[in-house]
Every structure is written in structure tokens, then in C-alpha cells.
Write a structure and sequence with these properties.
- The structure holds three protein chains of three kinds.
- In chain A, 15% of the residues lie in helices and 42% in strands.
- By secondary structure, chain A is α+β, with helices and mostly antiparallel strands.
- In chain B, the strands form three sheets. Chain B has a five-stranded parallel beta sheet. In chain B, strands 4-3-5-6 form a four-stranded parallel beta sheet, with helices on both faces. A two-stranded antiparallel ribbon of chain B has the order 10-11.
- Chain B is globular.
- The mean pLDDT of chain B is 93.
- Chain C is of the alpha+beta class.
- Helix content of chain C is 31%, strand content 26%.
- In chain C, the strands form three sheets. Chain C has a seven-stranded mixed beta sheet.
- In chain C, helix 3 runs parallel beside helix 4.
- The longest helix of chain C is centred in the first third of the chain and has 18 residues.
- The two termini of chain C are 24 Å apart.
- The chains are: A alpha+beta, B alpha/beta, C alpha+beta.
Chain lengths: 71, 358, 336
């Protein structure tokens, strides 16, 4: 029901908005819902708002679980 | 695209599929309650890749589809008022009301603008201070905080010509209603990943404990969905019923507290009508009285009498009771060019997905 | 709700357009040439095979990254002729201009039309100008018609796709759609996405040098690749299969689609062609196409699999399979 796309935070401005890069596209988004973000973090972007930070470690788990697995 | 492309890996997808096939031969019904999942499942052709004992059912997960006709009539009535600008996400523009759509009203001269964000709607209000700017507040928990934020900003910046016609909804009560309805046998829920990024995993606990139905919160890329299905099938085979998070990179068990606080600050929970399901207690969001001036229901409008399209079985489709091809209108009187019900008009609608991809 | 008036979607190149053409235009103007519903008509006039086509151009904004309405008006018609396998020769050009339109902009548009005709090696030999009241048109509309000669032995039509044919495309899809849209939606790009607006006549001439046995050529403009393939499948009564992972697409175009909830298969192109050719000539064809400026990124994206009522299938990246339908209604940015 809700499209959200991961993008990289490139710049953070004083008004709690940020410049976010998604596959070569740059979009501004509000950081109001996740203030604790740093430049370089990946965030989920939904309707002009960053709604969550991507956990880099957890993002790899699916590959750890399956890549080595012999079936 | 990082965090997107890696999750579309064919080798791993095939590996997960082989594992799914190996676990269980039981007949299993899994319901996805998120329209974005429905679309991702169809666009990747996942349904047909699964072994025949696993059946995916689409639930009431498209906010556009579950919005009752009377609400669409309400926004259409507002759009006909002098000096009103209606702002909406693109999703709503073609949804049929009783006799019209926003798209048709636009053709007839209403000022209707598609926005990507509630903040764009707010900007339109600032730029048009002599007009009333109403935002059609449709969405689930993912979108509600962005609507709440706009209201809070309007309050702070004194943008008094901005208001929201809230039809925002909450997902877990609808899942409960489906389980209580007992029309469909649901063996597991593919829970909505982005809703859960906001609300966390706790709100689904009752489904696992009271109804003994396993839940897995899933991401939206093909590997996420396949792994989620694998986790559900495994729970079912092990005889477990728990809430698990597959989409761990984005969903914390506690959700996003700041977003939840914003929802709670601006909105109160109210009983809400769901198309096809009926009234569900405490399943909708309406602005609290203290934000009453930003509630578009302060405007008086005459809303036409609700007319449901004859023969349309959207309701049953939304509850997962029938699949679209069982509706007599499907592919005949009802098609994306000439939709009868909302399930056909929304890109995420189950009927549209069946029509387009099946 | 039954449609009793024209909606924007009737002009989007998708299903509604297709139905309007079939039910209203074709049934009224019915003749064997129109019936083929190709990009242009190929007429037999005293032993000469003449290709004839027309198109009207309306675009907002008039100037976008990689092109403008004037260039589109020339290349669009040139391409429609090229899709008949013709060498484009002469164009007509008719302007409908809104009162108050900037003369300076008009000069810019016309001068880029001049440059475009020089590149495409065509002359604009006749024309017309109308000015309408303010509000009666949106800035400027341009119509161009064109004629060209089809060489003996060339027989290209949307209804000629054969089982076993290879489906080729001359480069990445969707850049025109996104370039125009991004100006409207205010998307910023790291590396600018330019419209692919280009004349395809030289590419087609090169292809015909390799073999005259090209079965179908089509430029997937409005409605995108999927709509063109569906039209061909229906006209030729065949099933087509394409492979998702083989379809060239720029990273930025893909990302823009993810953000806006668009499907790139439905995005407009203005410098792309799909070709259906016998598989045995495919390797040579590909080699030749890649040598042309407008074919460097040519690829084989699928094949015609069987006789049928006409469906298009996509083999998805992860190994699934699904139907690809025509565009139904203009794509709109969505959040869910």
C-alpha cells in the first residue's frame, strides 16, 4: 500500500530536510520523522518524507543466510 | 540502486523457491494485506513460481480500494465549491464515486492537483492564500505521519487555508475483522513492511497469540517476499504462530516512535467504513478537535446519494473471498479503462493486478 | 460509468486510444490501408510505393532536456515514415498558435525544425499557420505530415511478425518520458536524463542494407514499449516473449520509475525502434545497428514464440513470467 524507496542522504539542511540520492536521482525530503540521521546513511523515502533508516548490518543477513546454503 | 537490485537476484530467488518446495506439501493460504506487495508479486511473476499447494490471497491492502464511495463523493463535492483547490496523491484521481471521478471533475474545470507529498499540498496553500486548499488524506500508517506533519506545520506557520479530508486507516483492525469474519481460511499473513516501519511488530501480536495465525513482516523486493513466504511456511510446518520480521533492515520491533507520536498528537482513532468490509471499530484516523480548523469536514457540502456499481464484487475481492475472475463484471463491463469498482482503478487494486499481469 | 466524453487517456497511446481508433475512426474511414493501423500508410501509386503519415505534436514543456516540440515534430514524422521502411523525403508543417505566444520562442522552435530537417535529410515543402484566441490552445501545437519512398522488396508492417522472429531494440527505453516528466515533477538528476529524440531513418536505411527481410518496425512512442509490442502481437496474431533482464534502461530512468511508481515499459520514447526480424539475420543486423550513431546500444530483447490471439509475456529477472498489457490510462505519480 505504500511505496517507499531506499536512498542515500547526501546533505542535511538546517530546516530538517535533506538531499537524498536514489540511483542517480536527487530528491529533497523531510527528516522530521527520523531526525537522527547522518550524511551517508540510507533511508526509506515515502511521499517526500524519510520514514526509517536502513540498518546496513541487517540488510546483509538475507545474503549470509542463503549465499552459502547448499540445497 | 543499492538496497534494491541485490534483492532481485535470480540464483538466490531460485534457491529460496527450492527450499519452499521442500518444506511442506500442505495446502497453505497466505494473505498479503498490502497493495504494494500485490503489485510486486504480480510484476515479478511470483504467484506462478510457487508450488501449487501455496496460494496467495490479496487482502484489503490498497488504501484507494478500501475507501468507500461516499468519501470519494465527499471530495468531489468539495472540488465543486467555488475557490477550492483539491490536492491529492495521483492514486485517487480516477477512483469512481457514485457518478463522477476527480479526473472528470478536473475536465469540467475543478482545480484538482496531483501532489507527491503533503508538503507540496501545504506549499500550494501558501501560494494561494485566497483559496481553500483541501488535501485528500488517504493512506495507511505509512502515510499518516506525513499527513500529521503537514497539519502540525500548518498550525505552526499559520497556514489556515489548508485542511485535510482524512480517510486515513489503520491496518491491524482490518486484519482482525477478516479473521473474525471467517470467510477465508488464512494460514499466514504477509504483513506490510512500510506500515510496520512506523508501527513496529507489536500491533500484530494478537493475531499470533489469539488467532494462532503466523505473521511475517516482509519487504517488497522479490527476495524479501520469497524469504517471507519461506518463513511463514516454516512456521506453519513447525506448528508455530509468531510475529517475525523478515524486513529487518527497515523495521524495528518498536517501530518509529517519532512518527507514532505525530499521529497521536494530531489524530484520534475513530470507527471507520471500509469498502467491502463495512464499519470497523477504531480503524480510522480523524483530526482531534484541537486541530479542527484543519479538518475539511468543517465545510458544509451536499453529498450525493451513494450509488454502488451494480454487480461489482469488489467487497468480496477485498476480503479475499473470491478472486477477480469470479466477478461477473471482470474483463467485461469492468476494465481499467472503464472501471466499475476501485479494485480495478487503482494500480494496486487486486482486480487491476489480475487484469494487467495474469 | 460509461465514457461520454474524451478523457486525456484517450490520447495517451494506450488502450483507450486504441479503442477510439478502432471503434470510431477505423469504422468510419474504413479502407485497407488504414486497417493495418501502422505508423503510416504505404500507397501504391502508379508503380511507386509511397509512404504517407501524419502526426500532431503537443508537449508540455515545449523545451525539455534533449529536445523541443519543433525537433519532435520533424523527427516524429520522419520516424513514422522510417517505420514503414521508407526513405523520408518531404514534410508539411502546420502551426496552431495561441494568441500572445512569444515570437522569440517561435523562432527558436522553427530554427530547430530547420536543423532537424537538415539532419534527417527532408525538406518542409508546404505548410499552414493558424492563430487562435488566448486559451483556445495551449501555447503552440504543430502538425507535420510526410511522404517517403519505399524500395521494392521491402514489406514492413505491424501484422508481419512471424513465429521465430527475434525482437530487437536500438537502445535504453524511457528516457524521453522521464526527461519530460522530470521537468514537470521537479526531479533533479545527478547525470541529466536527456530525451532520446532522434531521427531513425539512417538507422533503418542501414538495417535494410543488411536485409530487406525486416518483418516489423515500430517506434514505441506514447504508450511505450509494452503498448507497441501488444499492438504488434494483436495485428500479427502471435505471442511475444521478452526478457526483463535484457531490456536496456538507464539507472536514473529506473530510479525515477521506482520513486513515482511508474512502469518503464509504458514510458514514451522518441528515438527508439523495435524490429522483428528472422533469427538467422539477427547477428549481422545487430552488428550493423551498433555501428550507427542511434543504434550503439542495440539489443535482442525477446522473440515471437507462437501463433495465438496475441499476448505479450515478460520473463522476469528472478525467473518468473507474467503478462505485459497495453497502457491503460496515462500513468500518474502514486505513493501507494
Amino acid at each position: 500500500m505504500c511505496l517507499a524507496i531506499p536512498g542515500k542522504v547526501r546533505k542535511i539542511f538546517d530546516d530538517r530536510t535533506a538531499e537524498i540520492e536514489i540511483g542517480g536521482i536527487v530528491k529533497n525530503a523531510s527528516l522530521e520523522l527520523i531526525p537522527q540521521v547522518s550524511v551517508g546513511d540510507y533511508v526509506l523515502l515515502h511521499a517526500g518524507f524519510a520514514i526509517e533508516v536502513i540498518d546496513r548490518g541487517k540488510a546483509l543477513e538475507i545474503f549470509r543466510a542463503w549465499e552459502g546454503k547448499v540445497d | 540502486m543499492k538496497y534494491v537490485d541485490e534483492y532481485r537476484n535470480k540464483e538466490i530467488a531460485q534457491k529460496i523457491l527450492r527450499q519452499i518446495k521442500g518444506i511442506s506439501e500442505k495446502k497453505i493460504n497466505l494473505m498479503e494485506v498490502c497493495g504494494t506487495h500485490t503489485v510486486a508479486i504480480f510484476r515479478n511473476g511470483i504467484r506462478k513460481m510457487l508450488p501449487s499447494n501455496i496460494n496467495l490471497i490479496s487482502g484489503p491492502g490498497c488504501p484507494v480500494c478500501v475507501t468507500p464511495i461516499s468519501y470519494v463523493d465527499e471530495i468531489i463535492a468539495l472540488s465543486r465549491k467555488e475557490d477550492f483547490i483539491i490536492t491529492t496523491f495521483g492514486d485517487m484521481i480516477r477512483v469512481p464515486g457514485s457518478t463522477s471521478t476527480l479526473e472528470k471533475e478536473k475536465t469540467d474545470g475543478a482545480d484538482i492537483r496531483i501532489v507527491y507529498s503533503t508538503l507540496d499540498a501545504l506549499k500550494i496553500a501558501q501560494d494561494n492564500s485566497s483559496k481553500e486548499v483541501v488535501f485528500m488524506g488517504v493512506g495507511f500508517e505509512t502515510t499518516s505521519p506525513t499527513i500529521a506533519s503537514a497539519v502540525l506545520k500548518a498550525q505552526k506557520d499559520e497556514i489556515n487555508n489548508f485542511s485535510v479530508l482524512s480517510v486515513a486507516k489503520i491496518m491491524p483492525p482490518a486484519m482482525k475483522a477478516l479473521l473474525e469474519g471467517k470467510e477465508v481460511n488464512i494460514d499466514g499473513f504477509i504483513c506490510p513492511g512500510h506500515v510496520s516501519a512506523i508501527i513496529g511488530s507489536e500491533p500484530y501480536t494478537f493475531i499470533a497469540t489469539q488467532y494462532k495465525v503466523p505473521c511475517v513482516i516482509c519487504g517488497f523486493e522479490p527476495l524479501d517476499i520469497l524469504q517471507g513466504i519461506y518463513m511463514l511456511v516454516k512456521q506453519i510446518e513447525d506448528g508455530r504462530a509468531e510475529v517475525e520480521i523478515q524486513y529487518e533492515r527497515a523495521v524495528k520491533p518498536e517501530g518509529n516512535k517519532i512518527a507514532l507520536d505525530k499521529i497521536n498528537e494530531v489524530f484520534k482513532m475513530v470507527d471507520s467504513d471500509w469498502r467491502g468490509i463495512g464499519n470497523i471499530p477504531l480503524s480510522g484516523l480523524e483530526a482531534k478537535d484541537k486541530y479542527g480548523k484543519f479538518n475539511a469536514r468543517k465545510f458544509e457540502v451536499e453529498i450525493e446519494e451513494t450509488r454502488e456499481p451494480k454487480g461489482c464484487r469488489c467487497g468480496e475481492v477485498l476480503r479475499g473471498v473470491i478472486i477477480p475472475s469470479e466477478c461477473p463484471l471482470f474483463r467485461k463491463a469492468c476494465s481499467p479503462e472503464n472501471p466499475q469498482g476501485a479494485c480495478m482503478v487503482s494500480t494496486e487494486g487486486t482486480c487491476a493486478a489480475y487484469y494487467k499481469y495474469n | 460509468m460509461k465514457e461520454d466524453r474524451i478523457l486525456l487517456s484517450h490520447g495517451s497511446g494506450g488502450k483507450l486510444s486504441f479503442n477510439l481508433i478502432k471503434k470510431l475512426f477505423l469504422s468510419n474511414f474504413n479502407n485497407p490501408y488504414l486497417k493495418r493501423l501502422d505508423d503510416g500508410a504505404v500507397l501504391n501509386i502508379e508503380g511507386l510505393k509511397l509512404a504517407y503519415t501524419t502526426d500532431s505534436y503537443t508537449v508540455d514543456p515545449l523545451f525539455f532536456k534533449g529536445g523541443n516540440i519543433g525537433e519532435l515534430a520533424v523527427y516524429g514524422t520522419v520516424n513514422d515514415l522510417a517505420m514503414c521502411g521508407a526513405t523520408p523525403l518531404y514534410l508539411s508543417c502546420s502551426f496552431i498558435i495561441e494568441e500572445g505566444f512569444s515570437l522569440n520562442l517561435l523562432e527558436k522552435i522553427v530554427s530547430s525544425m530547420r536543423a532537424a530537417s537538415a539532419i534527417a535529410k527532408v525538406d518542409i515543402v508546404t505548410g499552414d499557420t493558424k492563430v487562435v484566441n488566448k486559451g483556445a490552445a495551449d501555447k503552440i501545437f504543430i502538425n507535420t505530415s510526410g511522404v517517403g519512398i519505399v524500395k521494392e522488396g521491402v514489406n514492413i508492417s505491424g501484422s508481419n511478425a512471424k513465429v521465430g522472429d527475434v525482437v530487437m531494440i536500438n537502445g535504453p527505453i524511457g528516457s524521453h518520458g522521464i526527461a519530460v516528466l522530470s521537468e514537470r515533477e521537479g526531479l533533479k538528476f545527478e547525470t541529466e536524463i536527456k530525451s532520446d529524440t532522434a531521427p531513425l531513418s539512417s538507422l533503418v536505411a542501414d538495417m535494410l542494407e543488411v536485409s530487406k527481410d525486416i518483418h516489423v518496425l515500430r517506434d514505441p512512442t506514447r504508450g511505450g514499449l509494452s503498448t507497441s509490442l501488444n499492438e504488434i502481437a494483436l495485428s500479427s496474431k502471435v505471442d511475444i516473449e521478452i526478457n526483463e533482464s535484457d531490456i536496456p534502461i538507464q539507472e536514473e530512468v529506473r530510479a525515477a520509475c521506482e520513486i513515482l511508481g511508474y512502469d518503464p515499459l509504458y514510458l514514451a520514447n522518441e528515438g527508439k525502434l523495435v524490429a522483428f526480424i528472422p533469427s538467422e539475420i539477427a547477428p549481422n543486423m545487430l552488428k550493423k545497428m551498433k555501428k550507427n550513431k542511434y543504434g550503439k546500444e542495440s539489443k535482442i530483447i525477446g522473440r515471437v514464440v507462437k501463433k495465438s490471439e496475441g499476448k505479450v509475456y515478460l520473463n522476469t529477472t528472478i525467473g518468473g513470467k507474467r503478462i505485459v498489457d497495453m497502457l491503460t490510462g496515462e500513468q500518474l505519480p502514486r505513493i501507494c
